[in-house]
Design a protein that fits this description.
The structure holds two protein chains of two kinds. By secondary structure, chain A is mainly α. Chain A has helices at about 1-5, 20-30, 35-60, 70-75, 80-100, 105-125, 130-150, 165-190, 195-210, 215-225, 225-230, 240-265, 265-275, 280-310, 320-330, 340-374. Helices cover about 65% and strands about 5% of the residues of chain B. Chain B has eleven helices and eight strands. The longest helix of chain B has about 35 residues, at about 80-110. In chain B, the strands form three sheets. Chain B has a four-stranded antiparallel β-sheet with strand order 1-2-3-8. A two-stranded antiparallel sheet of chain B has the order 4-5. Chain B has a two-stranded antiparallel sheet with strand order 6-7. Classes of the chains: A mainly alpha, B alpha+beta.
Chain lengths: ~375, ~400
Amino acid sequence: MIDDLKTFTTLPDRAPPGSEIGLIAWIRQNLFGSAGSSITTLILVCLFLMYLPPFVEWALINANWVGNERSICDANKAGACWAFIGVRMDQILFGLYFGANPDQVWRPVTIFIIFFTLLIPLMIDKTPRKDILGILLLLVFPALFYVLIYGGVFGIPVADTTQWGGFLLTFALAFIGILFALPIGILLALGRRSEMPVIRAICVTYIEFWRGTPLITILFMASVMLPLFFPAGVDFDKVVRAMIGITLFQSAYTAEAVRGGLSAIPKGQYEAAMALGLGYWKRTIFIILPQALKISIPAIVNTFIALFKDTSLVSIIGLLDLLNMAQTASRSLEWNGYDIEGYLFAGFIFWMFCFGMSRYSQNLERKLDTDRRN
Amino acid sequence: MTDRVRIPLHRDPKARAIAIQLIALFLVVYGAYSLFQTTVGNLVARGIQTGTSFFDEVAPFNIGFSPLLDFKLGESTYIEVFFIGIQNTILVSILGIVAATVLGFIVGVVRLSPNWLASKVALCYIEIFRNVPLLLQIMFWNFAIFLPSLPAPKNSIEIGSFYLNARGLHMPTPIIDNSSGFILWALTLALLTFGLFIFARRAKVRFEETGRRLPVFWINFFAFVFCGFIFYKICGSPLAFDIPVLGRFNFKGGGQLPLPLFSLWFALTVYTAAFIAENVRAGIQSVSHGQTEASHALGMSRRDTVRLVVIPQALRVIIPPTISQFLNLTKNSSLAVAVGFEEIVAVWAGISLNQTGQALIIIAMTIAVYECLSLLTSAFLNWYNRRIQLSEL
């Protein structure tokens, strides 16, 4: 009897019933879980069948992909005219100057290659010496950008800022915006948390003033009134005016993002730094800011996404950014009437960058969250 | 016995704080002053007389859309244009806020639906519309979709007395035909509302005493519609309708919602709803599952659990960011300038500025309008946050 007990073994688990695993079970649970759910699924499938095939046919199957002339697209109206985008690609991406001088296109192309080779390692966790990369991106890259895009040195022909356009201009506006807004924003955030009432009041007023106005009025102000604010003789062209307006606007939003990070630092960190005898600046630069900035990166990226989308507003004050360039191209004499393609292409480029950045910021947020829990 | 160590003045934190603040204050005041001086100097040098005298000048351009304030070409002054601009901004903002809230809540709830397909559709909606610039969306809907696809006035799409064409939506507008009858009707409606309000209070008291609940909302809704209609007939149908009639080129009579207003409203709604949907999703997910389980354990029905336990707690998380979205929508309505809807930036900071050249005053007034709206919103938000914090104690 005891021997029997010793040889006792549990039966192996029975396989779950076929209705609870596999594809069919998944479909039953997730698509036909209840009467309402089934109806929703059916309606959605019907809608897809109605609208998706015609769209795919228009956008992909029947589309005119190649060609240099309008007549090709006019002959086949059933499909999208991507040939138009192909012909005007240089112009839409790099603006009128580089669109008109194909031999100069290498300049913006090189700049974007350099930018992404610097940026992508920065976004990967395991990269060593991120600080060097960051400094290269924030300090050396702008100088390179100026040399390559503006030109005027090493025999590179000058492309004046007024001739910048397309995605290049969108990129320049957004990058300059974040580059200058970041330090100003950090100072403002520190000022807003300062114990000195006057400093605090100044910073709060500044931040709330810019946050309360739509960017378009600020751009109007920058383009109409900025010349009035400076002594005679000091004048900026339209692009630089827009950059100043965007920087002022963006610094207020960056300040709020950084403030969020600052207020997440436990009080013990401040007290410990004070106990070590560090003064305000040493405490802030070596103890508080490194931690606070790390926490506020997702929020800063989010404000940057908003800025990147908002740069399209400069088309209202007449700058030829990506949106305006696409629109101008689709309203030109040769390609008049292909608005949808122009807008979709510009929209797709904006979407790609914004979606990518928002995914990155979400990942970062998730990672930082677990960091704090441990 | 040692003397107290005297801290030198430049090392005394208090003295330093005062000095730093004085310097900062001086710099700001001096900066503002020199900016002012340069600006005045520049204005004088360019021969621009800054003043408010142009307010009373007649505006030499037409404003097609102004539902409440009257605009007459050749009579209306610039200051009236300013108020019409504010009116139109507020109008499109309210229309957008209502629609975006409804759409945003629906998308946010669908995003959490157990139906995989529906949830993914909501996700696609959010990710597509959130990540494309609003200006591009406004222009896309207006110039690439609505304008080419809607017919000319002659071939308008007819829905009852509503006509939709490339110029906008024409619709009947009510006119007060019989003013004494209308006043009587309004009075009875006011009385009815008061009565229904008392009824709702009574029903609540009864519910708290006995636990029996009446479908108060539906009773009130049907009572209001039914009695309102009966009273309307009794008072002799005091309203007449001005119905749009197709003339030679366009519709005459009735009201018109111009196409730019419609495109702007549509794009603002679709864009802002994507953000509100994310707030709603985050809010509902923030209510811990234990709350739902506890409520089930207490024997509450699914409907009551959602209505009385989940939603009140979720709203606390949803409302503050959603109100800032409302403010964003209001600020974003300034993009109307791209499609030519006559709100404050288009009509005041755009046309009026070009006509008069009074950049300083016009831009300052435009900014002031938005600052007021923003201050009102944040005052309301602070009040709301304080209120929900108190109820937590």
